[in-house]
């Protein structure tokens, strides 16, 4: 029997982030979930397997950083290191955050890859086998590995499902949708995919669910709202929560100011204020 990728051996939880369509906020939910977990003291790794449009390096503000090779394998890019954080009441308050993405391996940010299935599969296998998935000090095992996938169910999903089959218990998948998409077949396709490959659906997040007016703080349901909850009720899934459209969110995501991202803005703008429950 094939063995689990060695580099995943110590990872405590593996969670996939899926969506039926692009542009619904899957990568945004991945970044915010990762930052929330870091803020709760967990060591988090994020793997971006959206090989044709890797956006996480930009979203995390580490677009121009480089992946390094060590004797143990590829060292992912550090987004946040808690190495110098003070120890309060016997522990560090924040965890560490590292990211691996094809984006780091492309010479030019405007480059994209046009690969056939087998090449994509080989790349994903390498991401799981050759990356040193550990906390900030290079030794502590990761608490969470979040895997951001491309929209739909494509070669990348099949490859990851095959690789993870040998990786021990995978916690499952979070499905991100928008109110308009909720009733469409795309979300159900994701759910069916999870069933086929034995991934547990951890729950559904409804993103862009209403718009909170920055002036009067009133929430307007531009599209519909509540579909995510109904979908979950009808399919017996967990509804994790909804996130409104927030104009400041785009500003922060697009911000390239690393100081702001590390120290304040991005780490403050977390789910703490929303209804999304920690995993
Ligand atoms: P996906 O990964 O599903 O393609 P992204 O996470 O890249 O989607 O989001 C698409 C765009 O929508 C990005 O510009 C992102 O900043 C924006 N966005 C996502 N969620 C929200 C939100 N709740 N409020 C405002 N903008 C959002």
TrEMBL record:
Q: Does the keyword ATP-binding apply?
A: yes
Binding-site list for ATP: 20-27
Q: Which CDD domains match?
A: Mrp_NBP35
Primary site of residence: cytoplasm
Q: Which UniProt keywords apply?
A: 4Fe-4S, ATP-binding, Cytoplasm, Iron, Iron-sulfur, Metal-binding, Nucleotide-binding
Q: Matching InterPro entries, A to Z?
A: Mrp/NBP35_ATP-bd (IPR019591), NUBP2/Cfd1_eukaryotes (IPR028600), P-loop_NTPase (IPR027417), YlxH/NBP35 (IPR033756)
| Similarity annotation | Belongs to the Mrp/NBP35 ATP-binding proteins family. NUBP2/CFD1 subfamily.
Q: What is this protein called?
A: Uncharacterized protein
């Amino acid at each position: 029997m094939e063995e689990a990728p060695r580099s995943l051996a110590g990872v405590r939880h593996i969670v996939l982030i899926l969506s039926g369509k692009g542009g619904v906020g899957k990568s945004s939910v991945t970044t915010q979930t990762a930052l929330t977990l870091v803020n709760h003291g967990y060591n988090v790794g994020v793997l971006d397997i959206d090989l044709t449009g890797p956006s996480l390096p930009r979203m995390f503000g580490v677009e121009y950083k480089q992946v390094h090779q060590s004797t143990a394998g590829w060292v992912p890019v550090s987004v946040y290191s808690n190495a110098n954080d003070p120890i309060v009441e016997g522990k560090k308050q924040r965890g560490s955050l590292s990211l691996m993405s094809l984006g780091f391996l492309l010479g030019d940010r405007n480059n994209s890859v046009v690969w056939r299935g087998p090449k994509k599969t080989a790349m994903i296998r390498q991401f799981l086998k050759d990356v040193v998935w550990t906390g900030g000090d290079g030794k502590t095992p990761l608490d969470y590995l979040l895997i951001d996938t491309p929209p739909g169910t494509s070669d990348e999903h099949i490859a990851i499902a095959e690789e993870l089959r040998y990786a021990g218990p995978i916690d499952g998948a979070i499905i991100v949708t928008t109110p308009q998409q909720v009733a469409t077949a795309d979300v159900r396709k994701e759910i069916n995919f999870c069933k086929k490959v034995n991934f547990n659906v951890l729950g559904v997040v409804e993103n862009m669910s209403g718009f909170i007016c920055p002036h009067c703080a009133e929430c307007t349901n531009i599209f519909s709202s509540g579909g995510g909850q109904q979908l979950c009720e009808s399919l017996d899934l967990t509804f994790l929560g909804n996130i409104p459209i927030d104009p400041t969110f785009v500003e922060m995501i697009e911000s390239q100011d690393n100081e702001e991202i590390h120290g304040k803005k991005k780490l403050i703008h977390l789910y703490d204020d929303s209804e999304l429950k920690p995993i």
